[in-house]
Write a structure and sequence with these properties.
Elements: E1 2-5, E2 13-15, H1 18-24, H2 27-39, E3 42-43, H3 44-51, H4 55-67, E4 71-73, E5 84-87, E6 90-93, H5 97-101, H6 106-134, H7 137-142, H8 154-177, H9 206-214
Parallel strand pairs: 2-6
Antiparallel strand pairs: 1-6, 3-5, 4-5
Length: about 220
């Protein structure tokens, strides 16, 4: 699972290690990263307003995130009392089989992925529920929500996912390199490609089902 931020140019991907994952594994810290990704640089006070937390709480969590290079101070902005913070640019690879199955990190891995996914679901649900009321036709026509289903083996799924990721990243870097344009607003881009769990025995074509039965 990737959670991304950046403004163009190079696009580093950071594999989060055990120590950093444990430091991130707090609901408020995950939400802070999400707010910085969505809305850009913020202060502890503005994050407190966004998250309904005290500025003392967000300030503490920002310092912990900074210790593990998830966020950084914005150079030349703010004061000693009111600092501006931004996410480190690039993608966070926050899950792997090793982190998800290790006794030392399993709980932390699940908490972080769950909090990021809750944020994504809430953003999508908000658009689906209120988009028609809050946005004009230009934005509604520009948005896209697509779901496709297919039957693939692991190699095919991996090939499809890597190709889609590469194209999406190339296009995103191109758009970010243009700089912020007039009328810009925060948008969120999702891409998911995964095997469905709990597959019933009746799945697949008659030919493949027949082959499976005879192959027992």
């Amino acid at each position: 699972m990737d959670n991304t931020s950046g403004t163009g140019g190079s696009y580093p991907i950071r594999q989060v290690d055990t120590v950093s994952l444990k430091a991130l594994a707090h609901p408020v810290r995950v939400k802070i990263l999400e707010m910085l990704s969505r809305y850009g640089a913020q202060t502890a006070s503005s994050l407190g307003e966004l998250l309904n937390e005290s500025s003392g709480s967000t300030s503490y969590h920002l310092r912990q995130l900074a210790k593990h290079d998830f966020v950084r101070e914005v150079e030349g902005e703010g004061t000693a009392r009111e600092r501006w913070w931004e996410r480190q640019p690039g993608a966070l690879q926050i899950t792997s089989r090793e982190l998800a199955t290790s006794p030392a990190t399993e709980e932390a891995s699940r908490l972080v992925t769950r909090e990021f996914e809750h944020g994504r679901q809430a953003a999508l649900a908000g658009f689906m529920t209120h988009g028609a009321d809050d946005l004009d036709a230009e934005w509604l026509n520009a948005a896209s929500i697509v779901t496709s289903n297919a039957r693939m083996n692991a190699e095919q799924l991996g090939r499809y996912a890597r190709a889609m990721e590469a194209h999406a990243l190339s296009l995103l870097q191109e758009i970010r390199a243009e700089g912020e344009q007039e009328g810009a607003r925060p948008v969120q881009l999702h891409f998911n490609a995964f095997p469905i769990l709990g597959v019933p025995a009746s799945t697949g074509s008659p030919r493949t089902r027949k082959k499976t039965v005879h192959g027992k």
